[in-house]
Amino acid sequence: xxxxxxxxxxxxxxxxxxxxxxxxxxxxxxxxxxxxxxxxxxxxxxxxxxxxxxxxxxxxxxxxxxxxxxxxxxxxxxxxxxxxxxxxxxxxxxxxxxxxxxxxxxxxxxxxxxxxxxxxxxxxxxxxxxxxxxxxxxxxxxxxxxxxxxxxxxxxxxxxxxxxxxxxxxxxxxxxxxxxxxxxxxxxxxxxxxxxxxxxxxxxxxxxxxxxxxxxxxxxxxxxxxxxxxxxxxxxxxxxxxxxxxxxxxxxxxxxxxxxxxxxxxxxxxxxxxxxxxxxxxxxxxxxxxxxxxxxxxxxxxxxxxxxxxxxxxxxxxxxxxxxxxxxxxxxxxxxxxxxxxxxxxxxxxxxxxxxxxxxxxxxxxxxxxxxxxxxxxxxxxxxxxxxxxxxxxxxxxxxxxxxxxxxxxxxxxxxxxxxxxxxxxxxxxxxxxxxxxxxxxxxxxxxxxxxxxxxxxxxxxxxxxxxxxxxxxxxxxxxxxxxxxxxxxxxxxxxxxxxxxxxxxxxxxxxxxxxxxxxxxxxxxxxxxxxxxxxxxxxxxxxxxxxxxxxxxxxxxxxxxxxxxxxxxxxxxxxxxxxxxxxxxxxxxxxxxxxxxxxxxxxxxxxxxxxxxxxxxxxxxxxxxxxxxxxxxxxxxxxxxxxxxxxxxxxxxxxxxxxxxxxxxxxxxxxxxxxxxxxxxxxxxxxxxxxxxxxxxxxxxxxxxxxxxxxxxxxxxxxxxxxxxxxxxxxxxxxxxxxxxxxxxxxxxxxxxxxxxxxxxxxxxxx
Length: 768
Description:
By secondary structure, this protein is an alpha+beta fold. The strands form six sheets. Strands 21, 22, 23, 24, 25, 26, 27, 30, 31 and 32 form a ten-stranded mixed β-sheet that branches. Strands 11, 12, 13, 14, 15, 16, 17 and 18 form an eight-stranded mixed β-sheet that branches. Strand 11 (about 230-235), helix 8 and strand 12 (about 260-265) form a beta-alpha-beta unit. Helix 3 (about 165-175) packs antiparallel against helix 4 (about 180-195). The protein starts with 17 loop residues before the first helix and ends in a 34-residue tail after the last helix. The model is unreliable at about 1-15, about 210-215, about 440 and about 710-715 (pLDDT under 50).
């Protein structure tokens, strides 16, 4: 082993326990591992020997010996001390020179302690990248050790974490099913890294379905249990397994809210068990009614027959093998009581397998009409005012497979966004059986065709000139129209020296941008490098480029405000000098959203030079003030439940590449040059726009390269650190009520670490 850096010191021996004794013995038999530290990025060592993060993505690169044929279990161990803020480390394994082969491992948060984890590195991957933290921080990292984990050590460690997984792994190993055996060992170590899983989360916080919470909920809803709104549940039925149908009906009977009716619509089922279960249900409770069709008409026809028969003020939709937690209708009734004007209610959901195990929770954002155009986010549970359903019209059998998406689009044409309410609780369990039984599972191609047809019809009725194209993973991309002529865009680029960054930025904009009318305003903040000054002089010869001079200390907000005052465009596009354009339609895509009347700002998907995501929207409150969503995922990662496959609303976007109307910019006073000279000015600007009633949009269909803060020094020492801390304090004071309540990031998801993990506990009572 060749360390190659003073970062490494001799690791101290672990304390003597039985497990540690077995570990030491097992390690003696472990295969030798050769590796070396190649380099550090955005990390410096200060005079006290502490590592200082000089950017927001510090990295340590480690090269392994190549092993092409077999995967390797590796153990990584290091110690951190003198931590200024809790670290949220990430580890990546990849094959050098192949940017598309990439595995990531989310490591536990750590503050003054030892991190000791085991990971499985796939065959052929000969590089590791350790990111100690995801933002500015000061810390001391020592005792970094890697070694290959042998079979004995692997079993000892896995046994201490998940004995059941080890026994299953050994069983599959005896059957020579190595991949299955490896899968169960991976499960043990994944559970150890994630710390707390969905099962534990449910036991602690599941108010709608967990027994400890039901008496509380039942007592709270006693006033509306009998006198609250009558909620009609419609359930189309066609040949479900008898057990699943009975369980679905029993889940309705178990509701703590008593004022409901269930209308079962049998679509000419051929299985005898269906008639038997229907008769049992109708006899069991007078609130259950059965409708039977003599000929099979499909899911839309069966649902329409049930909707005609309902008596309730609100209608809930349920599949014939899914489940409602006991508190589902109580939560809906309480929402209606609190908001009588509500016309559509939707909830979070999870999945349930054939054995009743719950998994894969979908914690949804508040209602976003852009997401609804790209995917049917609202199902399940979805409850709609009956009169609104009458006005929208029946389900259409020609669109079976996306009939519910089509109905929701027609409903939204008739109600205001304020009439939609989201309940951030799991109120629906979606049955996902090993055998695909539902129409949508069996006929994926027809589902996609029906979805496209529904969205295109909706666009023709509501957004003339808009087009719908098929996006990644079967989602829908909306191409918004531009006025004719297209409005002028002023692209504003602050810079100081660093011509190696500025040149590709400006040249790529001028050479590759296909937009018909734009100007580039470069604001030179006291450059002194002769090569930079020469480039600025030469590029000024282009009629599309102007260079403004602004001496004095770096103040991002002030520099951009000065340029915006001299801009001639109706739209302003703020671009960092370390951005590079790779696709010609990026500005057309952003401008098409920027001209929308209700949109205040538009952000792009930004990639690191290695192709991984640097920015795809900002989660307000993540990490204390704000953090980038989906950071470091691969370029074409779909995001959390397809979020990166569709245009969507976000809490904020980065001004590294942000487009906004000039009128909106001055309406809220531009960037705050007094309180936010460098950091968080873009987040503050977006929050001011939202406060004024405007929306912030992130489009994954405008994609650029961003080196991220490469042209500017660190915020972790001296005056810069003091300034950074004051900006954090200002944001927490100015937006105290807003930071923990990003409407587009569920209160059930954590604001610690990298985001999109379970919150322990959820942020109850912080809904917008």
